[in-house]
């Protein structure tokens, strides 16, 4: 854990940074967040993350009362003060303290640095397994702190020896509990367009794919998923991870041609 964090305009020792027990983020899960990371010591795509944070906040009527430049300075100061180069950066905007657990006026804004998770190399060389579950997140386009369903179902994922769970609704493929999904069919790449969180890694992968392949954001059905030639997932800490199996459908024991190329292009982007 980092020694210092930011809360409501101040950088404080982490043990002294507190919010009230009547904060709506705690009592009602009424809060939004965003999570980004550094590459080579520099915050990656911070403007995109802050735009998404603001949009998420606006969807819950929570205002972020700092400019992007101010927040960027807070992040730089936190990295320097904690003497950390590579880190996950979590922004948290809560409903704030409430006298009746319903009304809200002044959000709490917090920034914390976290250790970046690491993943086995075999995930990238052999791919991972997913299992499906019918569920659509409430306020899907917003990054809220409501992860009740993902946490509640985590034992199912573990018991299935799966990497994660893929949500669908009806016959519509949606997203993972924390990441986005892409399919490849006949060298054409597609990713769900609606009822999902629009990931920042997803955004960059789409932009990279559009330069070299046919790339679509659209509705993807379960039959299309089962018939895909390749499948991969994207996320802030995971970058691009190939999928070798979903439920009983096996795709490949190693990344396909298109997935390998996208992994290469994304690695080049973040290491530029």
Structure description:
The protein is of the alpha+beta class and 272 residues long. It folds into 2 domains: 4-114, Aminotransferase class 4, branched-chain amino acid transferase, N-terminal domain (D-amino Acid Aminotransferase, Chain A, domain 1, 2-Layer Sandwich), CATH 3.30.470; 121-270, D-amino Acid Aminotransferase, Chain A, domain 2. It is 29% helix and 30% strand. It is built from 9 helices and 15 strands. The strands form 2 sheets. Strands 7, 8, 9, 10, 11, 12, 13, 14 and 15 form a 9-stranded mixed sheet that branches. It has a 6-stranded antiparallel sheet with strand order 2-1-6-5-3-4. The longest helix has 14 residues, at 46-59. The protein is globular, with a radius of gyration of 19 Å. The mean pLDDT is 96.
Number of domains: 2
> What's the N-to-C terminus distance?
28 Å
CATH topology of the largest domain: D-amino Acid Aminotransferase, Chain A, domain 2
* Uncertain residue ranges: none
For the record, what CATH class of the largest domain applies? Answer: Alpha Beta
| Average pLDDT | 96
Sketch the major β-sheet.
Answer: 9 strands, mixed
Helix count, DSSP H or I runs of 4 or more residues:
9
Question: Please, what is the CATH homologous superfamily of the largest domain?
Answer: D-amino Acid Aminotransferase, subunit A, domain 2
Q: Into which percentage range does the β-strand content fall?
A: 25-35%
What is the approximate shape? globular
Rg value: 19 Å
Helix content: 25-40%
Q: Which class do the helix and strand fractions yield?
A: alpha+beta
Number of strands: 15
What series of H and E elements makes up the topology? Answer: EEHEEHHEEHEHHEEEEHEHEEEH
